Amino acid sequence: MEKKKLVGLLKEIRNISGEVSLTGMFRNSKASLIRNYNTFLKIATDQGLIDTPELFPSLLEDAHIDDVGVSAALLGRYLKDEEEDEEKQRHHKHDFREFEAD
After folding, report:
1. What is this structure's pTM?
2. For the chain, which residues make up each domain, given as ranges?
3. Cβ atoms 85, 91 nearer than 8 A
4. DSSP string, 11-49
């Protein structure tokens, strides 16, 4: 699966988890959100997209909905930052501005 798609799906998990937590909408979706998060985590791990797997443990069935949202947000950010770094390297191999003093 493309990294960009994983990031987008993780954002959706984060958003839906927030809705569940704040409004109770989709309140019966927690088990599905946990299954999906764990599936996306496994895909990212199997594809070698996570350098330090212990940063992102699988969620247990009884995880709180807020934990689902936070975990999805953190994993999505991790994958997105890595994607942005790769993009930067492709387009700016010799960008010396990185070393300028602030």
Report:
1. 0.79
2. 3-90
3. no
4. HHHHHHHHHHHHH-TTGGGHHHHHHHHHHHHHHHHHTT-
